[in-house]
Design brief:
Blueprint (H helix, E strand, L loop, with lengths): L1 H10 L5 E5 L7 H16 L3 E5 L3 H7 L2 E6 L2 E7 H6 L4 E6 L5 H10 L4 E4 L2 E5 L5 H10 L4 E7 L3 H9 L4
Parallel strand pairs: 1-2
Antiparallel strand pairs: 3-4, 5-7, 5-8, 6-7
Length: 167
């Protein structure tokens, strides 16, 4: 309730610039959605909205422009679409037999893709269009895939990639 009241008070003078620190902190999912819609609406009407948050998934939804900081240094500043355009799509792959993951990685690397295994899942860089080729090659090698999910990096993954801090 305090969070909503603070935001309401900040909006009373109809500001041209709004600076918020963790505006969704402590809110339930409905409250988060309301604040998200409010901030997006204000930005669409011309208000400059600065949001400081460690919830990168929230920032990804509401931001047009982003400044990423790490230890006081600017890692990236620019349109969020520009940030994502520089990132590689990837696939998450699981196999019926966990021992086959190494074989899947070898197939990917053999086709010129970067790949690694993390927490029992193969992460393979490459466009979604290559998924069919990977599936076919895995089948031909007798490997049963139980998951083959093309993905685009999200803001959190992108942050870790850019800062060199792999999860």
């Amino acid at each position: 309730m305090k969070q909503r009241l603070g935001i309401a008070a900040a909006l009373l003078p109809d500001p041209k610039i709004l600076i918020l620190d963790e505006p969704t902190n402590g809110l339930d999912p409905e409250g988060i959605q309301e604040i998200r819609d409010l901030l997006r609406g204000l930005a669409d009407k011309g208000t400059t909205v600065f949001v400081s948050s460690h919830l990168l998934s929230e920032l990804e939804i509401i931001s047009d422009y982003i400044v990423m900081l790490r230890k006081g240094e600017v890692v990236f500043a620019g349109p969020i679409q520009e940030l994502f355009a520089a990132q590689q799509p990837f696939m998450l792959v699981r196999t019926e037999n966990s021992g086959d993951l190494e074989k899947v990685v070898a197939i990917a690397v053999g086709d010129g893709h970067k790949a690694h295994i993390q927490s029992g899942v193969a992460h393979i860089e490459g466009p979604a269009e290559w998924a069919g080729t990977l599936n076919k090659k895995a089948f031909e090698a007798g490997i049963v895939l139980t998951q083959l999910s093309p993905q685009m990096p999200n803001l959190e993954e992108t942050f870790f990639e850019m800062t060199g801090d792999k999860k």
